[in-house]
Design brief:
D-Maltodextrin-Binding Protein, domain 2; 5-stranded parallel beta sheet; 13 strands; 32% helix; single chain; 350 residues; 3 domains; alpha/beta
């Protein structure tokens, strides 16, 4: 049972933003849990969350075990995936062990209220109602969404055909704003469509006919998942339907480190890595599954192939106008009150 804390913490993904990282692992070397360093509970303020975690010697993490790429049970029953690796890295960093507790999507928040775990790491979207009760991290991932329909649905061949249709979604917030913009661009009254919360069962609900389309699925994942289930899909991409193009999965640093010579060297390494992935995809895949053998299946292999074209080949580049356009879009959509000047939030390293 998790230790009772004053406020609960969610690690959150800014749902809807980007070319998904695509594969389920990051950091570490795969396999077993990292060893936790010794941590002194007395070094933290009495009654604080960190003191409670240090005293317990572990952090209990709520996540899903049935969401491929992000959190799923491996062949040995142990959880694997992107969110899982994030949790392990955090536990290692703060010097405690990571314990994962499975929960259904519609019960994750209830589980944190019931003290089943200390933190949820499952791409929980931020909204005002949740912020009034819970503490959130900064977003750690952004997912580039697409609107997907069944290939055999002859009633929907253009975006205009969505009028009067049922659209499934998983998390409200950015997806709502994106869909509204896409519908407006196509001349469709957003009030004419029926939005249905299917949680993360996007593919099953579309294949099963509960909805006519889904919004929020990964363009490098859902279409392959549908094909492997015997149902071809067709995607409509936001950047082709009125949503401005934007940069994604960006690197963030502190203002006082901008002159640190390690940053340009880091970006040079990222550039070399992206080029190697592009030029040697099979060799790179073999290295990946050597570290994460539990992810060696047809779905992840195809996600790997579909993700490669999305990697930026010039990680040093900064497009000021692209940032400004998307900031204006967020203001117009009511997601933020005012867009900051680009030079306040982004810098191009020399």
């Amino acid at each position: 049972m998790a230790s009772p804390l004053n406020r609960r913490l969610f690690l959150t993904g800014s749902v809807g933003a980007a070319a998904a990282l695509g594969l389920a692992a990051c950091g570490g070397t795969g396999g077993g849990e990292p060893e936790a360093a010794e941590v002194d509970a007395s070094s933290f303020a009495e009654g604080s969350t960190m003191a409670a975690l240090a005293e317990a010697g572990k952090i209990t993490i709520g996540t899903k075990f049935d969401q491929p790429l992000f959190g799923q049970a491996g062949p040995d029953g142990k959880p694997v995936g992107f969110d899982v690796e994030i949790g392990r890295a955090i536990a290692e960093h703060i010097g405690v062990e990571a314990e994962f507790v499975e929960g259904p999507w519609d019960g994750l928040i209830a589980g944190i209220d019931a003290n089943r775990y200390d933190v949820v790491i499952n791409q929980v979207g931020i909204n005002e109602e949740r912020q009034a009760k819970y503490d959130f991290s900064e977003p750690y991932i952004a997912s580039k969404a697409a609107l997907i329909v069944r290939e055999d649905n002859a009633d929907i061949t253009t975006f205009e055909d969505l009028e009067g249709k049922r659209i499934g979604f998983s998390v409200s917030g950015f997806e709502d704003a994106m869909l509204a913009s896409m519908l407006k661009h196509a001349g469709v009254d957003e009030r004419s469509v029926q939005l249905i919360n299917v949680n993360f069962a996007l593919t099953p609900s579309l294949i099963g006919g509960q909805v006519d389309a889904t919004i929020g699925g990964f363009r490098n994942f859902e279409l392959t998942q549908m094909r492997l289930a015997g149902q071809e899909g067709r995607a409509f991409f936001p950047e082709e339907e009125g949503v401005p193009v934007y940069d994604e999965l960006i690197f963030v640093t502190r203002q006082d480190l901008l002159e640190d010579t390690r940053l340009p060297r880091f970006l040079e390494a990222v550039e070399r890595g992206a080029l190697h992935l592009t030029n040697h995809p099979e060799e790179s895949w073999e290295l990946f599954i050597r570290a994460y053998p539990d992810l060696d299946d047809e779905l992840n292999r195809q996600a790997w192939i579909d993700t490669l074209p999305r990697f930026a080949k010039r990680p040093f580049a900064l497009d000021h106008r692209r940032y400004a356009r998307f900031g204006a879009f967020m203001v117009e959509s009511g997601l933020i009150e005012q867009a900051p000047a680009v030079e306040e939030i982004a810098v191009e390293l020399e």
